[in-house]
Every structure is written in structure tokens, then in C-alpha cells.
Amino acid sequence: MLLIAIFSSCCLAKPSRSRFTNYTHYRLPESLKPEHYTLKIVTSLDPLHLTFAGEVIIRFQVLIGTGNITLHARNLTIDENNIELIKYDDEESTRYAIDAVRVMGEHDYYIIHSCLPLLRGETYALKLVFRAPLNQLLHGYYRSSWMSVTQFEPAYARTAFPCFDEPNLRAKFKIWLGHQKSLVALSNTPLAKQEKVYFESNETDDYVWSIFEETVPIPTYLVAYSVNNFAYKLSGNYGVKFYTWCRPDIMNECEFVAQIAPELYKFFESLLALSLPFTKMNQLFVPNFRAHAMENWGLITYRESLLLFSSNISSEMSRQRIATLVAHELAHQWFGNAVTLKWWSDIWMNEGFATYMSILGVHHLKSNWNFLQVESMNIILDVLEYDAQVNSHALTQVVKSTTQITSSFGLLAYKKGAMLLRMLHMIVGDDVFLNGIREYLSKFLYTADNYGSLWNSFSVRAHTYQRLETRNNIKIVLHSWTSQAGYPLLKVIRNYSNDSASVTQQRFFLNSSHAKNATKRCWWIPITLASASRLEFYKLRPSYWLECKKDKQYINITLKDMAARGDWIIFNVQMVGLFRVTYDAENWALLNSTLNSDKYTQIHVLNRAQLIDDSLALAWAGYMNYRITLDILSYLQYEKDYLPWRTALRGFIKLDNILKGYERPYKFFTNFLKNLILPTYNTLHGLNSTQDEKEISYIDLMHKTQISYWACYLQIDDCVNAAKQYFANWKISNINQIPINLRLTVYSTAIRYGDQSDWEFLWQYLQESNIVVSEQRTIIQALTCSTNEITLRHFLDLIFNNTKYINRQDSVAAFEGIARNKIGFPIAKNYLIEHFDQLREYYGTISRDVINIILSLARQVTSMENNIGILEFLAKKRDIFQHSWKTILSAVEITQLNIGWVHRYRAVVYNHLRRLKTWEKSNTSKITITMRM
């Protein structure tokens, strides 16, 4: 103790803030390793005093001798006179004096300089006392109406308590929550006990400590807690009990999540052969929650509006979306929680694994949904569209700031990552894929890793089981997909005189002219194929590889014994690989001939979808003539399956957006679509079917839903009249007998072709308190279909000034709906420009929501005239958008692509549609197409 007294005299009586040089690196120093946090938080939900106060004791080990402690803290008031630093010795503890404190705002650093050096190998404890208001920003520790809740991913734990806020720095947590005893406290682990809270100023019986069991080592972003007045549903009849917490008045709508979560958890536990130490799993429905959900260790939080389900009023699509979201968060308990990434640059591994595993989980849960095919196809289409932009980015990114961390959670991290794992799974097979994962999770449990060990495990097993040639390494293969933006276009040119084919690759762009000046890139591409005489659509192991060398030099290959001259050939069976394929004109003709015949089902349903999407994308980008594409699409008049139609309709959205501003081409285009859709619409009995939806399979129901929506949108008389009649009957009787899964179609059609009284009726219905959230969202989307300018302007004002009926999370979708509306686009554009400051205040600075609003406008731009205002606006606001400028550039690229397409292809498409001799009358019952093969 004499040492302390002597050394303390060398230090300032009060910590200084000005004596030491700055530490400016964006990563914490590697000198300290946290081992344990004791975190105490007292929360006040008094409307006049919405605050929290806390104390944290961090025990840490010194790995490299140092004179300071650098950790994270932001927007916290820390009592610098009450900082304590203690060194643990074998027999006694030594208190260290604090010399100075520095705050480094750029990286949220709070740096504490000790009078004594911190010695390598020794263990210390740091105590900090702090306080802060409960914010309303939907991150950190914030209030949501009558509750408080946390959202710490990716870097917001530091706004709730001082900590080492990086994903690789796992530690155990002992959490104490002080709260009014009438409320419920939840955290990562089960409640151990409760005690009275004794305040220094006075003793009160109103507050208690809820003290929770110690966690296993977890990173700070997985810490979670909440104080609320919710009730719970208990489910799970084996080791892990699930507590699903909701507002008491919506408990019945939480039942579906409570029901499926234990079954999904049990599936993952069996699939991955790893039991986690849970006895209790909390699921919390949060009314105001920016993310869709958050996988906190043992306390999963969900955005309430996305998870509520009522079997009497929620659609089957809603059921599927909920199951997918729940599966995703439960999968994270293994991928991201049990084993954590070392740094955010590889976030795609966390999210990619959770996304892919969620597909497997939902497929297990509801095998009749055909989810493995359906969801994989949906995700592939998203990735192929997004990743073809010039401004796309690699999966593995350099991340040097909190803003960059947040922006790394994009579409590619979730979806491209998932489809690369699907590709790997299909190539190496179940045994190699699953056993590799099991071994990896077991080996690195409760640690952080960069997944390099996993790739090595896959390679060893793949070589052992002869699923991969020994000269091929999975780490090298995947690196070619994760380290660079974009994906390849495979070009197959057949030599019909000797039955061979040359195969080359290049990066695919949404505008082929960009390929001329593009950086040289290549990928390791698995080659799988089938032909008319060899229908090997289930042979998923690559027959060949198109290789990519370290210097980005790729090797063209010539394949022998392909197929006889009259046989078509298809590469990338079941879309194993994440790439597009184009062929010589003769092979396209052979494929077209088969598709437009009764033999079209010889081609696997996923590959029929592939041919549709590839032909649309290739023509859009300028790699292929639109004549070939439109001939391919003409086969849809015979197609009966959901997936090819799902793919085609997604592609038609882009053409519809572009052409609807040009009367003559649009008339031919819509008549072309009517002819394609009408046979399927009639087969499915349209809106006039009397069959109960419960008697229809999930896939057929989804198919009927999508076809009916488009039939009404295209003004097919039977559909429009039936929809208007449904709506009129509802208005008269005040009893809604519209089939649940057709309500969006009926509501949208009634608003689009109805009058103001129809809009007012639906708006009033939205305001009824007993409508489930999924029905509210359907109504909001339908209300955006009005063709009345005054109504649309009024609705925009309601969206951003009447949050009682349209919450913040749904406001973006409402704005996007108006932007997609031909009448609504200029109204939405002007609203953004004129009310930008109001939108910033509404969403909170420049949030992801504001960026999504801008993207929704960009997708509708088809001329320089309606682009100028947006470009001028973005240029003036560049400083405001500086941290999101890459996404803004993506929006600008979309407008340029659309305008360029109009100049190059509008007349071309118009002439080809005329060639197909589409009947031009609006009555659609006898439309025909004459094919010229």
C-alpha cells in the first residue's frame, strides 16, 4: 500500500484530459483481453425521467504491457472521479491511481491512462460508473413506448455501457437489472434471483434487482436486456423451454412463433450435432424495432409487426416469411453466437450461414412448401440483379469505421453468402458439408475465427470422399467469389461438326458496354450440364472446372462429346453455381423449340426459370437479341409451374416500369403479357374459384396469388370485375369474405380502378384497432395504388404525420408503393426534395430508410427529364450522404441504366412485340400469339 501512496503523489488529483497523444487506429489495441463483465443497470421508465444509470466492472488480462486502457464508450456520462483500477495478486489486490483520461470521438475510444504500467500476464479489474438518457433511435439501449430494450449489433453496446466493443473480444457477463418490481426484466440467461435496490438517497420498495445467471463467453453485440410489462407463451417439450414475450393484447398472434421455434431449434441441434447450454430461450416482440430481428444470445428480439400471425386473416406468404425469420435467428445461435467472426469484414459468413440454414430449417418444418427450391431461386434472382451493377462490392470488405460496419450488412452479405454456401453444399454433398461444419463448430466453440479452418476442413473431406480433385482447394475456389465484386457470365459456343463446345467467362454487367473497360476478373466455376439426350439434371457434382489463376488469368476450356447437333444443351443444372450462361444462336433455338412444345418439362423446373431470367437479363444488358428473349418467353403460355412464372413476373416488373411511360410500346407489351397469363389464370380458375384456400397446396396457392395479381393489374376483365365485386360486397355487408391470400389483389384493384369512396373506406378500415399487422400492411400497400394525385399527396402527409396507423417501419414500403405508381412517381419525388429535412428528422439523420426511399425513386426513372431533379438534389446533399455515398452511386447507376435502356431498346422491343402479332384490343379472352420459329 506504501507503493500506492508514493506513486499516487506523482499523479494528478483529478484525471487530466490533455496530456497524451492520440491512438488513431480503428481497431482496439491488442494489449488487453476482457474476461468478465459485471454489469448493473437501473432503468427508469418514468415518462418525466427516461434514463438509465449503471456500473460496470470489467476484469481483463494484459497480453502486452501497456500504460493505458483503451475501450469504447459513446454518448455516456462517465463519472471520472469514480474510476477504479485494481490489480489482482495471489494474496491481495492493489488499487492503481488514474493519471489521465482521453476521449477519441472518431472511433468512440475512451482511453484511461494509469499511473502504473499494466504488466503482461497480470489480471486487472476496471470499474466505471455512468448514466445516459434512454434514446428513441432504435439502437443502443432505447425506449419503445412502454418498454426499454437493447439493440447492440453491430457497434452500439458502447452507447449503453463502456466496453471492449469488438466481435472477437468475447467475455462472460453477469447482468443485474434494476427496475420497478411491477415490471419484467429479461436478459441473455435465466433469472437467478431478485433483491431489493437500495439507493444512496433513500430506500424504496418500488425497485428490485433482477440478477441473471452468468453467460458463457459472448461478444458485446450479443448482450441483451429489456424491461417491460409483457406476458409470455411457454412452449417446447424437451430440454430447452421457449418463452415468447408479447404485449398481453396480442398474445394469440404470437402463437405461431411460439409453436415453430422449438421445432426449428431441435432441427438445428440435430443437424449440427451440437447442443448449446440453453435451458431457456426468450423471444421478445418489440413494437418499434429497426432491424427485422436480432439473434442475441438467449434473448432473440423481433420487430413485432413482422411476426404477428392470425390464421383467420394472415396470408400463407406471411406464415412463410415468419418461419424464415425465426429460423434465421435460431440458426445464428450456432453461426455467429457459438462461434463468432473475428471482424466485421467477414459478416457475410455469419449472415450467409444463417440465411442458408434457415432455408434448410423451413424446408424441414414445411416440406410441402418446396422451400428449398423456391427460396433458393428467389435469393439467386436478387443476387444476380444486385451484383451486376458497376458499384457492387466484394463480400469480404475493408471495414474501418462504425458507418462502414453498418453498411456491410447489405443484401450480398445475407444472400450471396447463402448461395455460395448452397453451391458448396451441392458440390461436395451432405456428408462432407455437414460433417465439416460439425467439426468446425465443436472445435471453435465460444471463440472467434475467420472461417479459414472451415474451408480447410471442407477441402480435406472433399478430397477424402473424392468430391473434389486434389489440385482444387475450396479456400481458393471460394476466395475467387468472396474477394471481388460481381459474378461471371459463362459463354458456351458449340462446334456442331465435332460435338464440342468452347467455354469462356467474363464478368456480367447490367450494361454490357461496361465490360470493355472493366478490371480483369475471373472465378473458379463448377461446370455441370445436361442435354436433350442426357437429362442429367440431378448430377450436381461438377464434371469440369473453369479455373482462375492467382493473376486473374482464366483458362478457356473445350469440352468434347457434348451432344449431337439436334440436341439442346444446358449448363449449370439446378442453378448450382451463381452465374449466368449464354449460348450460340443455334443452341438457343433448340432450347426455344423444346420450351414451345409439349416436351418443355424435360428441362428441370429450376433451369426453365434460369432460361427465363438469363434471357431477360442478357437482352436487357445487350448481350443477346430481344427476339430470342421474347421467343423464349412465349412458351409461358404453356407453363404450369410456379417457379418459372415467379421468375418471369419478377423480370416483367422492370420492363413494366420502363415501358409504362410510352403508350404504344406499353400497349403491345401488356397485350403480350395478357396472352401469356390468361391460360394459366383460367386453369387456376382466377378470382371466381369457389374452392376453399385450405384445400389448395401451398405452391398452387402462391401461384394463384401471383397470377391473379398480374391478371388484374393487366386489366383482364374477369379478374378486374371479380375483384371489384368482392370489394363492393364487403362495403355493402361490412363482412369481409375476400379470400385471405387474394386480399392484396382485390384491395389494389378496387383502389386502382375505383373512386375516392373506395379509398376512404379502406383508409377507415385501416384505423380499426382489431386488425392484425399483416392485414394493415396489405391495406397500406393497396392504398398506394390510387390514381388520384390529390389523394396520393394527402396519403404521403398521412404516412409521415400519422404514426398511429402507419408506423415508421412500414412508412418506407408505403413511400415505395407511391413511387412505383405512374401517377405517384413525380409526387413522391417532389415530396422527398421538398420535405427532406422532415424525413431526416422522422427517420433519424441519414438512416438506411432514407437511402431505401431514394433507391425506390431511382428504379422508376426512365428519362433525363425526371432524373434531373433527383441528380441535382443528390449533388446538393452530398455532404449529408457522405457515409452512404456508395449506395447513392448505386442509385445513380440504376437511373443511368434505365435511361440508357430506353434509348437503345425501347424501339427494338416494340418492333419485336409487333412481330409476335399480339392482338391489340383490351378484351383479352381471345388473344393469340403467332410464333415464327
What does the secondary structure layout of this molecule look like, with pairings?
Elements: H1 2-8, E1 32-46, E2 49-62, E3 66-72, E4 77-78, E5 84-88, E6 93-96, E7 98-104, E8 109-118, E9 123-133, E10 140-144, E11 147-151, E12 172-180, E13 184-187, E14 191-198, E15 203-212, E16 225-228, E17 231-235, E18 241-246, H2 255-272, E19 280-286, E20 293-294, E21 299-303, H3 304-307, H4 316-332, E22 339-341, H5 347-365, H6 371-386, H7 402-407, H8 411-443, E23 447-449, H9 452-464, H10 474-482, E24 488-495, E25 500-507, E26 525-527, E27 529-531, E28 544-546, E29 557-559, E30 569-571, E31 580-583, H11 585-595, H12 605-621, H13 626-633, H14 642-659, H15 663-683, H16 698-713, H17 717-733, H18 743-753, H19 756-766, H20 773-783, H21 789-801, H22 808-820, H23 824-834, H24 836-843, H25 848-858, H26 864-876, H27 885-915
Parallel strand pairs: 1-12, 18-19, 19-21, 22-23, 24-31
Antiparallel strand pairs: 1-2, 2-9, 3-8, 4-9, 5-6, 5-9, 7-8, 10-11, 11-16, 12-15, 13-16, 14-15, 17-18, 20-21, 24-25, 25-29, 26-28, 27-30
Site (Transition state stabilizer): 414
Domain Peptidase M1 membrane alanine aminopeptidase: 259-481
Domain ERAP1-like C-terminal: 568-887
